[in-house]
Each structure stands twice: as C-alpha cells, then as structure tokens.
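Sequence only, no structure available. Ideas?
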Amino acid sequence: MFMIRMSILVVAACMALPAWSGKSAELSPEAAAARAFVAETSARLKALWMESAQAAWAKATNITEETIAAETAASAKVLAAEAEAVREAARFNDVETDADTRRQLEILKTMSSSPAPRDPEKVAELAAIMSRMEAIYGAGKVCDNGRCRDLQELTRVMAESRDADELLAAWVGWRTVSPEIRPLYQRFVALTREGARQIGFDDLGALWRSGYDMTPEQFADEVERLWAQVAPLY
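Reply:
I predicted one. Tokens follow.
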C-alpha cells in the first residue's frame, strides 16, 4: 500500500500540469468550471496524498497500533476525497474542454486502484483493512529453531542462497504469514468492487484495465495479442 501511495503522487504531478498550453481562447462557462474543478481538486488531493504518504512511511518504518491507526485515519480521508472527486469529474463527461483539462479529468476518474463506496462507514472499514493487511505483511516473521526472520531477511535468502533446503524453507515459511490476510483481502475485494460499480465500472478489474488510454475490452485484446506473440517461447 505504501508503494501505491508513492505512485499516486506521480498522478498528482501529472494533474499539476498547466490546464491549458495553447493560445488563450474564450471558454464556455462549463469549460471554465471544468478547468477550475481540476485545479482545485488537484491541489486538495495532492495535500491529502502527501499526508497519507507520510503516515504510511511512519507506519512502514515503525509498525505499531498507533501508526496503524494514524495511517488508517489518513487513508480514510484520501479514499473519501478520491471517491468524491471521481463522481464530480463525471459531471463534465459531455463538456467540451481543452485537451489538457480533458486528460486530467480522465486521470481523475481512474486514479484510484482501491475505490471506496459512498457509505462513510465502509470508507473507514476499507481504510482500516488496507492498513492492517500491509501491517501484517510488513511485520510478518518466520521462526525456525529459535531464529525468526522477517521478509527482508527472507528476500535476501531467496536472492543469494543456493541451498535448496534453505530456499524451500524460506518459500514455505513465508506462506504461513499470509493466511491471516485472506479474510481481510476478501472483504477488500467486496468493498472496492462496490466502489468501482458506483463510479460506473462493471467491477474493480474493469477500472484497473481502464488506465491505459484504451477501453477495458481493448486492453484485454491487446494483452491477448502480446501473449500470442510470446506464448511459443513457453
């Protein structure tokens, strides 16, 4: 989840581009409203993303109930603001705008990989689930013969060891950490699917496939085309 927060700051940088790079022209009231919405929303979301990223970093470097709670609170604000921004951006779907404003509106509509439902209680639940899953993953350890190793140490084993038994123990051991995440992830999927449908997508997968300057169907076709090219190598 921390990497997700870093990636959305890249989105913030994209949205911070000037709303118009061509010659000045008379704007319709609707186009002017769209441009103003993009500018205001970009500034508001950037501030929330920065706050959330700071909370995520604090938790990632010191996983405690306090840092988990702080990240959860920051995430809840982000999720609610993103969901509101997506719904508001859809108001300008049929407005003729300049290319930069239109691009930023489209970015807004697909910016969240974990869209929250409208219900505030579900927003808070989703934020708590996301923070807890990451905390379990980050704090997970595999203990054997009195020695406990975290993910960083196990990653080093997988990268450097050539001992088959040690590699197998690391691989199997880490999979004892994940079962605790399973019910949380199942609920995460249900909540984000609901959120995706509320902003006009068939499901969460359709939203994820919409961020590549093509429709979800075109994206699926393109993946299939590329796979057909490399399949013979396998």
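Residues 29-61 form the longest helix (33 residues).
Hope that gets you unstuck.
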